[in-house]
Structure formats: C-alpha cells, structure tokens
Amino acid sequence: MVALTQVMKEAFEALKVFPLATASKSGIPNVAPMGSVFLIDDETIWIGDNFMQKSLQNVLENPKAALYLYGPGAKGCFQIKADVTVKTSGDEHAKLKAMIQEKKPNLSVKSLLILKITDVFECMPGAEAGKKLL
C-alpha cells in the first residue's frame, strides 16, 4: 500500500464531497458523490454507506474504486485508487456508525467501505496530468 503525502492529506481535509468511481464486474462505470468519508490513516479511507445502491453492488462484484480529490481549499488535484473491503458489522462498522451519527444523527449506516490506497495520480491539467505520484 502507499501512504498519502502531507499535501494530499490537506487536500482531503479541505473537501466535503468526494466523487467515488466504481465499475461492475462487467465494466459498467458509476460515479457518485460521497459525504461520509474519513481519512483513517495515511493509507486507509473509510466511506459510510448511507444511500448506496450501484456503488455498493459494484464494489461487491469488483472490489476496486477511485476517489477524486479536488475542490475549494484543496492544493492540488489527485485521483486515489484503492482496493475495497465491505463490512456490515463488527468493531470498525460500529466505530464508523458512531462517527457519522455524531455529525448527522439521522443518517443510518448500512455498511462500511474500507479503501486501502494502492495508487495516487496527478489530475491537474498540464504536462504532468495522469502521472503516477505514489
């Protein structure tokens, strides 16, 4: 696994909504905005499944995803690729549920997507666009 740099972590912390890209086993793509996203450590991201349908089905069929970091306050533009594990119970699921309900008590948490970062790419326009950073 790879570890995010300080600049990447600061970009992550500046954002409120994260586009999550997934694909079905047969390759049908899906992108959906995610709001319950938490940087757990330098190589792990948790996403709460509050409303997922296609995204969840896709990662169950094809446990790969990409998360896009860009927006107001972010210094840089990054695409994070990750391997995904889905949990619907256990200590990690309970911890995520508490984290989400602390901020938004009305949200239910159906499952936890654990993203283990495998690659990070540059997304800013220019000569370095698409360059693998990590």
TrEMBL record:
Boundaries of every Pyridoxamine 5'-phosphate oxidase N-terminal domain copy: 4-121
Domain of life: Archaea
PANTHER family, alphabetized: 5'-PHOSPHATE OXIDASE PUTATIVE DOMAIN-CONTAINING PROTEIN-RELATED
Listed name of the protein: Pyridoxamine 5-phosphate oxidase
